[in-house]
Every structure is written in structure tokens, then in C-alpha cells.
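Hi D.,

Good news: the full-assembly prediction came through. Inputs first.
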Amino acid sequence: MAATSSPNRALRILMRKDVLSGLVFAGIAILALWLGQNFRIGTAVRMGTGYVPRLVAYALLGLGLLTLVKGLITPEEDDPDAAPIAWRALVAITGSILAFGFALERLGLVVTILIVVGIGSIAVPGQSPWRVLAAGVVLAVTSVLVFVYGLSLTMPVWPVL
Amino acid sequence: MDFLSNLALGFEVALTPINLLFALVGCLVGTLIGVLPGIGPVATVAMLLPLTFQLEPVSGLIMLAGIFYGAQYGGSTTAILVNLPGESSSVVTCLDGYQMARKGRAGAALAIAALGSFFAGTVSTALIALAAPPLAKLGQSFGAPEYFSLMLFGLIAAVALASGSVPKAIAMIFLGLLLGLVGTDANTGSERYTFGVAALSDGIGFVPLAIGLFGIGEIIANLAKGEESRSVLNQPIDKLWPNKQEFRRSVPAVLRGTALGSVLGVLPGGGAILSSFASYMVEKKISKNPGEFGHGAVEGVAGPEAANNAGAQTSFIPTLTLGIPGNAVMALMIGAMTIHGIQPGPLVMVEKPDLFWGLVVSMWIGNLMLLVINLPLIGMWVKLLQVPYRYLYLAVLVFCGIGVYAVGNSAFDVLLAAMFGAVGYMFIRLNCEAAPLLLGFILGPLMEENLRRAMLIGSGDPMIFVNRPISLGLLIATVLLIGVLLLPAARRGREEAFQEE
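Then the structure:
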């Protein structure tokens, strides 16, 4: 492998799975401690609101640091399945579920499903728009029949004006 | 005889037309999910929870249970015919099942898998019926310290028996515990980590969490892998009956697999996946010609298939008797019981014997149905395999959204699920298993409650956990387990057990 400059090497160490996981765990633990700094701890007999959260957060912090150190001292090995992050799928899928949440109570189930399927279909390059539309219509009709009429779940079917 | 009258009550409940119908629906849906690669049982059970809201609790739980063990059956079909595990528990079935299929023995492999699973399901269901009453009685004598120690043991054992890095898995448990703390503190009434959001004051729902991590997160990961080429075996499956020699070789393997799976299934974290891996290792070790494994050894199908079904069944034992889930699906079953207003624990059997015994008997009936569903209908399942994932995931997205919304009619929950979906993909990228997180999340509030109560009983002295014999025993077991995990030899063995992929 070609010699890499030092900032590049630092970045590669940072991107190791254990290093990143350790940082995530420790980060969340510190956030939990900071957010919970005003919780009453109480005593061991009568525990306050903050007793258990603090206990858990300190344990998470310790485990996070352990994972971090383990990642730093383990010699680098080439990750065979180092696929790039699937940004396209990540954004499209997360976006389509977010859209579901924002749209359902205003636009009703039918329109919502068409939107969700539309946004979701962006995740895979080269989807045929007509087939996606057909899938959306089929899903909308089945869902209304099964969930709203069949199982009488309460959700609006058409846009709420 | 208590045993017989209990079973009679169970048959009375399970054989009502409505419960038979929902057992069948559960088995069909489960098989469907099992056959389709890329949709796991956790996401399915979470997605379909709202379907059971309108039902009686018994019918709802019967259906959910059917989905779970139906998935074990369905997963093997895909493994044998396409060389893709439909479920993670059928990974090892690919090894020899697909090779048998390539040699024209697909029918025999499918039949052996189904018959072996049915036998294992029958034995392990009987085991549940026998083991549950004494265990529940024991559970009733448990106080807060015993429960706390038991849950601690359960969480650590779940890590020990799962694959992947131990410190990371324990960290995931603690992350789950932390997420479980969000909401109003039951003891003091003050809010924790709610950011002033009213929808969070009741805590994070477990359905948005489970669907996000296991449903949406997995969709993203599957799409990232790209479309895998599926070469469905296109030769007709005519001979469904194994020949005499195959039969003779399978019987002992099925017996061993059933025994192994029944034991491992009871342990937390064990269940179906570990059982099938362990059974494959055993069969390969004791075989006279281990070289045959990987080239269509019939024992390599019979043993693991029996084991994973036995493990799936017996994992209900701690869930139903003690209210302590051993794996992610059982955590969802606990959640489903809570939604139906049933407090999971040893009292379920006493207070709702019809529900308990109806569920147990329906498991056996479900296994019988699966035998019928799987063998003659195999052609239909093969057709389903040809639906491309690029359309399938759109349907899963819609059902995920509806499922999350319907639990609490809350649009906020859907947004939460979207967020956990992205987080779930991040965990998959970082090789962090999400199952321990879900276990921690479910057990977190229970553990806090029992810890507080125990400390109150013991007037603040942690010695209360050591002074009670059962609690002490569980703590010693936990410490031993951690010690064993740290031994280099055990670490290697544990890695080996999951290396057969």
C-alpha cells in the first residue's frame, strides 16, 4: 500500500469500526450525564430520579472507552466488505418514513402511500416510474381495504381539509 | 392429572374456530416472511402487532407465535432451493441443503427439514407444558432481589451466546437501558430525557424502536448490498419422500438436534440461531465421514433444522413463566402481552390459564399446520421467491409506517421510527448488534423498579443480593459467565461456533 500522509492515516484510524462505535457510546453517555446533571440522585435506600440513569451512563461511558481503546490498539486490517455508505438508500428510506409521519394525518392514507412509495423508490437507481406508480396504487388500495375497512384501524383515508 | 387437565383446557381454547383461523394466518404469514430473504421475524412481528389489537389476547398471541415459528420453517425452504438463508437461523441449512438440491434431492431435503422441524416442535412443546408449571411456581417465590439478579444473568447470557464483540454487545445493552429510562420516572413522577416533548413523557415506544432498528434499518442495509442474483432451482420437485438411507441417517440427527435445541432455546440469547449452529458442529464432529459435510450430507440438514425449531419453541419458556425475554422476538411478545393488558410473569399461568395453555397447545397445532402448508404448497412459495426485492421493499416501507402509526395513532412515533431506522443502519455499519439493545430496552424499566425495591427492602445495603440464596446463585453464575467469556480458549470456541458461514 502506498505511504499515506499523516492526516489521512488519522482519518483512517478514526473510521475504524471499533473506534467509531466507542466514540458513539462514550458520546451518548456524556450527553446523558450532561442532560441529567440536575436529576436528584437520592440515596441508595431511596433512589432519586437520577440514580439509575447516572449508573447506566457511567457504565456506558466505560464500555465506550474500552471499545475505543480496543479499536486504537488493534492493528489495522483491510476490511474485506468495506462498502461505501449507501447515502442514497439511507436518505430515501429515512425520508420516505419521515414523509409518512408528516403526511398521514393531513393528506390521508391513499396520498401518503403514493408519496412514501415515490420517495422510497429513489433508493434504487433506475426504477421504472410506471411500475413504481402501479406498485403505489396496488399498495394504497390493499392497505385501505385491509387496514381501514378490514381491521378498522382509525386513520384518515382522504386528505383532511 | 394436572398435566392432562391443563392440556384439555388448552385444546378447548386452541380448537375454537377463531383461534384455529389465527394460528393458520400466523403460520402462513410466518412462512411467507421466512421464505422471503431480507425480512426478519423481529420486524414482521413488530409490523403486524397492530393487526392483533382488535383480537382477543389469546388469538393475538397465537397468531404472533405462529409468525415466529412459521418463519423458521419458511427460512429453510429458501436455504435449500436458493442457497440464501430466508432467516438467519437457516444459514447452516444452506451448506448441505442446497448441495442436496443440486444433486436432485431437493424434495428429500425439504421433507426432512419439515419432518425434523415437526418432530422437534412436538417434543419441545411438550417440554414447555411440563417445565412451565414448576418454573412459574419458583418464579412466584421470587422477590425484587431475585428478579434483579435473574435479569442481570439473562442480559449477560444473551451477550455470551450471541455472535460479535462482547464489550460492544454489553454497551448496546446499556444503550438500551438508557433508552428505556426516557419518560416519566414511575417513582417520583419527574421527567427524564424528554426534552419537553409531550409525546415522550410516556417513554419511547418499543414498536417504533423495533421497526426502526430491525425493519427500516435492514431495508437500507439490504439495498446497500445491491440486488443479489437469485438462481431459483428450476428443476421440478417431484419426489418429496426421502429414501430409506436418508431416512435412517436423519433420525438420530433429528433426535440430537431436538435435544440440543431444546436446551439452548431456554437460555437467553440462544434460541434458534445458536441451536442450529451448534447442532451442525455436533453432527460434523461425530460423523464418520465429516468430509461429506458441505457436499450434501443429510445430517447437516436434519440436525440443524430440528434444533432451530426446538430452540424457537423452548425460548417461550422463560418468557411465559418468568416474564423475561431471551431474544428480540420474545421481547416483542412481552410487549404484545403488555399492550393487551396482561402483566407478563409467573402469575399469567395462574390468573389466565386459558390463555397460557391455549397458546401452548396452539403451538403444537401450528407445527402440524406448517407441515401441511409447507410440503404440498412448496410450488407456491417458490413462485413468491421470484418477486424482486426492488418492489418488495416498497411494500415493507408502507407496512412499517402503518404498523408504527396504528400502535398509538401517533405520527410522532412514525418520525421516531424513521430516526431509529437511520440509527439502525449506522449500527449495522459499525458491526453493533441491535438485539441486545432491544433486550436492555425492555428489561431496563423492570430492572430499575426491582433494584429500587430491593434496595428499599435491604435498607440501602447491597448485601441483600448476596444474602438471598437464589439471588446469590444467579450472581455467581453471572460472574462465572463473564469469567469464562474472558478466557482465551472460550473466546476462540465462541468464535468458532459462529464461523460455519
